[in-house]
Amino acid sequence: MKVIKVFFAGLLLLPLTSCVQETTKKGDEAIERKVESILSRMTLEEKIGQMNQISSYGNIGDMSNLIKKGEVGSILNEVDPVRINALQRIAMEESRLGIPLLMARDVIHGFKTIFPIPLGQAASFNPQIVKDGARIAAIEASSVGIRWTFAPMIDIARDPRWGRIAEGCGEDTYLTSVMGAAMVEGFQGDSLNSPTSIAACPKHFVGYGAAEGGRDYNSTFIPERRLRNVYLPPFEAAVKAGATTFMTSFNDNDGVPSTGNTFILKDVLRREWGFDGIVVSDWASASEMINHGFAADSKEVAMKSVNAGVDMEMVSYTFVKELPGLIKEGKVKESTVNDAVRNILRIKYRLGLFDNPYVDEKQHVLYAPSHLEAARQAAVESAILLKNDKDVLPLQASVRTVAVVGPMANAPYEQLGTWVFDGEKARTQTPLSAIREMLGDRVQVIYEPGLAYSREKNPAGVAKAVAAAGRADVILAFVGEESILSGEAHCLADLNLQGDQGTLIAALAKTGKPVVTVVMAGRPLTIGKEVEVSAAVLYAFHPGTMGGPAIADLLWGRAVPSGKTPVTFPKMVGQIPVYYAHNNTGRPATRTETLLNDIPVEAGQTSLGNTSFYMDAGFDPLFPFGYGLSYTTFEYSNVKLSSATLKREDVLTVTFDLENTGRREGTEIAQLYVQDKVGSVTRPVKELKRFTRVTLKPGEKKNVSFELPVSELAFWNIDMARVVEAGDFGLWVAADSQSGEEVFFKVTD
Ligand code: BGC
């Protein structure tokens, strides 16, 4: 039996002064001297100019005057290398101090080669593939001159109505911390001043994913303890991974918009975490503080943002307009402006922009074969097998005719997902094209989409697809959401399949042929009915450029599904928020509750013996967090702890046997959950603390071990201190957040 060890060395708790940082410190000292030297020569206007980010617009002439005057520190949305060089040349040669511009772009899940949406990537539970994806995105983006991306988005999202859930890593603090750090490392590479490195920008700081009702831009109410226990850790992990910039968020939390929030920007980010990079506001989030009713006018906007700790303003132009006056009046100190400019110059130096401001205009790295291959593998690992009755998948050689139906089967633009300004549908490989290419003449493919796009209502089209499907051995139904149905400002109150897609699946199922439903979407959808009538369901999220070949590989068994849900799938919208790491109520659900239809007429009122659940939805979701099937089966056994009693400085070793009990090689994502039984404040019923991907041949058994420093059981307690409280803990090693047998240990003083 082989032994494998998994040890994410204290990702969340590493002190900021690690060896790597010691070595970079020397370089940093030289940079600090250069920063001070430039700063001492800057006029106030030039300083304020560095704090201004504009969006690329019009012709170069429009922008050149501003750049010459030193009124621009960064430009977003310019992606033409020739224009980028031209603008940079103006900054370097025609502005008084020759300070380079920082070119920014939202490179969220790929630049040209589009990877699965981040939520899909999170389903891989594979930080390496996520890091590789970010590296490739950086290589492609930097090859046209972009040196700053506004990613990763690491907002914890527990409400799939919120369209931006697509952009993040789901509901879990630990998973998001690991994945976010991997993205930061991928974007920034080994050395920030390599021309292929781009500055990462963890966003949106902070709490944005908790928008009330899942409506974008909405208020949040996250008390400090929850903020620290749930929403802040991914950002802290990103700082530890070396993130050089941060973006504020649109929401106001408990009445304070993030762009004006001194507590999060100064107390937490700068003082507690020691962040010394750039804080940029989100698009006009500074001036939107007027709409929030937090600032009366643009003057107050500039004052409140800069005093709260924002260094650079994205597009709303109040800094340039108002800061000179505010400084004169003493409402903003010049030293505050100096600090902001230091942060900006420091990152420009670290990126090597002063020495190497231009990009080679003859780049050849876009869509490199290795990039496409990595995107394909990421799409394979992002797909989750939610159901597979009678092993209908993988499709067997006996399947001679398949019907390919549904609006997402051949929708090259839609499968790319949200935030793909630079992705091209012409380069996208759809499931239909991949299936045809893979099968050649071996299998007959009948293509009848039925619906042209996901929202379409077209009974005649549905009837046509159903008739065509009747001629096939197996029906492959590709449904889901068009790209525009998720992402920023694209929230939904109804998470059922749009248009006539539900009708289509129901009608296909009535043919009696096995229906394999493949969902391509930006969020978990309430697909209970479709799951019920389908023989198999593969959830691919928006899988990106190479989604087609990845899905074809999975359907025909050239690849084996391994993804697990990075977010809970609700049965119905009314269950939201539904997430696994909730606190217990005083009356926890037992799953034996009497549901709606079993309640007698004229039943007398009683709360006795009742629990926290919905009469119409029960307690459980459609699929819990961490859930996903394979083409093989796995068995967990023999869970052992290195000790049942530990001290705070100890490391707990958890070992277990994992066996592939099926007939195919497959990869299982084993998960370790912990519950702190009694705390000075109530604690979640389970929290993910470790996970690992284990690949096993049929019949193979491995002894796997997780190392968990007890220090990682710390949480922000009643005294608002991060401590490990002594007491009893439960622990599960399991295939998902709802299974596994509990074992116990104790932490003692
Ligand atoms: C979004 C950010 C994005 C920025 C720049 C905003 O609307 O909230 O996530 O980075 O625009 O495009």
Explain briefly what this protein structure is:
By secondary structure, the protein is α/β, with parallel strands linked by helices.
How helix-rich are the residues, as a percent range? 25-40%
Determine the CATH topology of the domain at 379-555: Rossmann fold
Mean pLDDT reading: 96
Gyration radius, rounded: 27 Å
Under CATH at level 1, the class of the domain at 379-555 stands as: Alpha Beta
The biggest beta sheet is recorded as: 6 strands, mixed
Structural class: alpha/beta
- How does CATH name the architecture of the domain at 379-555? 3-Layer(aba) Sandwich
Shape: globular
Task: Describe the overall structure.
Helices cover 29% and strands 17% of the residues. The chain is of the alpha/beta class. Among the domains are: 379-555, Glycoside hydrolase family 3 C-terminal domain (Rossmann fold), CATH 3.40.50.1700; 634-748, Sandwich (Immunoglobulin-like), CATH 2.60.40.10. The protein has a six-stranded mixed sheet, sandwiched between helices. Strands 5-4-3-2-10 form a five-stranded parallel sheet. β15, α19 and β16 form a beta-alpha-beta unit. α15 packs across α20. The protein binds beta-D-glucopyranose. Beta-D-glucopyranose (BGC) binds next to loops.
Keywords:
binds beta-D-glucopyranose; 20 helices; 749 residues; 26 strands; Rossmann fold; alpha/beta; Immunoglobulin-like; five-stranded parallel β-sheet
